[in-house]
Task: inverse folding
């Protein structure tokens, strides 16, 4: 202990010098902005690549969570879209308010959940898609299935944990569609060849259709909500002696790279179906 | 007591010279002599080293305040103070035990003084210029500035020493 004190006493001036030097460097760092900038840049050039790559790595681990959050947010936004509701004018409220503006009530018609594709085929005439949600998650027959870019198909069979879907590239597909630019309704079918190309039938020859016009669902079925994108017009041709145009449609959904799908439920489906059942047409 | 007052006066004069005259000299556009280290070089060796460092720090700090380079001259002055006894030992060729080893004309010959002043001025300028430019780009030019400053400072300091101190000490 005495030695230590002795040592400190003998070398006190060295400590003073070191302390003063430290003060000097602090002052330099504080007062001279160029030096500070230079130090910061040198430090950054060393740490930046490390921090960047490490940050990327850490970010990788969080991607799943982030994806899930984005999905939930997406669902919330999709559920609030206009075509999810039945809009009616609330006549009593309009009268009571006494102004020119009309008040409406919105009744929810459709609801969304999401699922992931576990298996799918695209090269067969009767393709099918399997998703990882089933009756346990509230999936039922004849629900519509959408992808983030377009529509996918209809739920055909439901087991406890999985569901099978008849996708748009399937020979039995019939989807009621409309072309908003000419206000004409037609039917989308698939010819069994390319999985990303379908045909739109029932459009009369006298109508002008431009390449690139979008084709939306018409909302005339209980399956698909109105106004979902099916695809865009790729080619228009007329055959001899035909009354209708032959319209090639490029489908909006990329069926070869399908992973995330949304399942749409029509909340009033049973009610509408019970009305339909009275007509023995089908 | 007399010694203390003369040292204080020397420090004050050196600072005034530095702040009001030498800081405005820019020979060839670059070279500025550091006259204030004159007082640090002539500081008696027998006062406590702690005080030596403190005096060096305060003087450097005052010069810094006027050149807006806070800390640069102070750091250089402290390093100069640290190096000074080692340089004296080196030049004497033996370990000094005498405390009244005064680096002044009349006590030492011209060659000794020249070497002493040049080496310490060089150390001082090395630190100052390096901290100011803070880059190894244009290294040649930086070294040129350091050397030029050192030579200029040495000339000025030796002139002052021989002008004001040689006669008074010999008599």
Result:
């Amino acid at each position: 202990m005495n030695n230590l004190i002795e040592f400190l006493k003998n070398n006190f001036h060295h400590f003073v010098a070191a302390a003063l030097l430290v003060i000097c460097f602090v002052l330099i760092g504080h007062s001279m902005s160029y030096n500070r900038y230079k130090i910061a840049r040198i430090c950054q050039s060393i740490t930046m690549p490390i921090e960047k790559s490490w940050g990327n790595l850490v970010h990788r681990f969080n991607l799943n969570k982030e994806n899930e959050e984005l999905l939930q947010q997406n669902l919330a936004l999709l559920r609030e879209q206009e075509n999810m509701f039945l809009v009616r004018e609330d006549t009593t409220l309009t009268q009571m308010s006494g102004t020119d503006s009309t008040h409406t009530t919105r009744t929810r018609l459709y609801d969304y959940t999401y699922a992931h594709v576990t298996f799918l085929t695209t090269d067969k005439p009767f393709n099918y898609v399997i998703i990882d949600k089933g009756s346990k998650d509230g999936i039922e027959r004849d629900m519509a299935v959408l992808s983030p870019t377009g529509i996918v198909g209809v739920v055909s069979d439901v087991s406890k944990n999985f569901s099978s879907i008849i996708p748009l590239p399937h020979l039995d597909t019939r989807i009621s569609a409309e072309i908003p630019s000419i206000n004409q309704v037609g039917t989308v079918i698939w010819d069994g060849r390319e999985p990303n190309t379908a045909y739109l039938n029932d459009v009369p020859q006298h109508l002008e259709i431009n390449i690139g016009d979008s084709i939306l669902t018409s909302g005339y079925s209980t399956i698909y909500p109105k106004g979902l994108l099916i695809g865009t017009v790729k080619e228009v041709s007329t055959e001899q002696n035909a009354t209708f145009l032959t319209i090639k449609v490029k489908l909006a959904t990329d069926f070869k790279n399908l992973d995330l799908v949304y399942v749409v439920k029509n909340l009033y489906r049973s009610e509408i179906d019970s009305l339909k059942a009275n007509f023995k047409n089908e | 007591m007399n010694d203390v007052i003369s040292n204080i006066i020397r420090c004050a004069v050196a600072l005034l010279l530095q702040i009001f005259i030498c800081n405005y000299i820019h020979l060839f556009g670059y070279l500025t002599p550091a006259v204030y280290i004159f007082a640090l070089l002539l500081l008696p060796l027998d006062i406590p080293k702690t005080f030596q460092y403190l005096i060096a720090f305060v003087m450097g700090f005052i010069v810094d305040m006027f050149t807006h380079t806070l800390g640069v001259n102070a750091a250089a002055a402290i390093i100069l103070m640290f190096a000074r006894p080692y340089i004296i030992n080196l030049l004497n060729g033996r370990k000094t035990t005498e405390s009244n080893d005064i680096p002044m004309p009349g006590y030492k010959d011209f060659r000794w003084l020249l070497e002493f002043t040049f080496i310490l001025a060089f150390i001082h300028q090395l630190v100052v210029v390096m901290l100011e430019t803070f880059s190894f780009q244009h290294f040649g030019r930086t070294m040129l500035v350091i050397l030029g400053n050192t030579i200029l400072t040495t000339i000025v300091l030796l002139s002052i020493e021989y002008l004001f101190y040689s006669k008074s000490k010999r008599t």
Remarks:
- Chain B has a mean pLDDT of 83.
- The domain at 2-170 of chain B is CATH 1.10.1760.20 (Arp2/3 complex 21 kDa subunit ARPC3).
- The radius of gyration of chain B is 16 Å.
